[in-house]
Amino acid sequence: MEAPEAEVIRQHLIDPEICIRCNTCESTCPVGAITHDARNYVVDASICNLCMACVPPCPTGSIDNWRAMPRAQAYSVTMYVLAGLLAVGFVCNLLITPVPKKYYMTMAQLNALDKPTEVQVREESGAAAAAAVSPTWLVYAAWVPVAVPLLWAVWVTLQKAALIFSQG
Questions:
Q1: Domains detected in the chain
Q2: What is the pLDDT of residues 142-155, one digit of tens each?
């Protein structure tokens, strides 16, 4: 039995490394298939009618005419995860309500918090002195989970930059 052929669609691509984010493509598209966020411009293959109106005005040529690809690959799993997170965030924003006025602090309560008592000052200075002495090894151990991924990311970035500049 033969496997069914996947539906192939034509999808425009906007190269994020060439795109200067001038918004020409989005403003030129007659059907509104091009959208953007803070980092990239994207063509929605389900809206795009392949009129090619966005390709000629692009000043950098970052819009590939189109490529053929299976519809299943047109939108990655990441896009669906991000769309789901966006929906969850929208619902969370709808569920947020203002804090009732009964929980507001009065000016007297705020002023009382700003003026520490003499006992609090003595307790805090003793606690600060005790906390100021922390073992050096503990500080280094706490930074390891931060430094390892950070250094790895720098290493990968440098490798990719070297690869890009060595080809140029």
A1: 8-74 (3.30.70.20), 97-167 (no CATH)
A2: 889 999 989 998 99
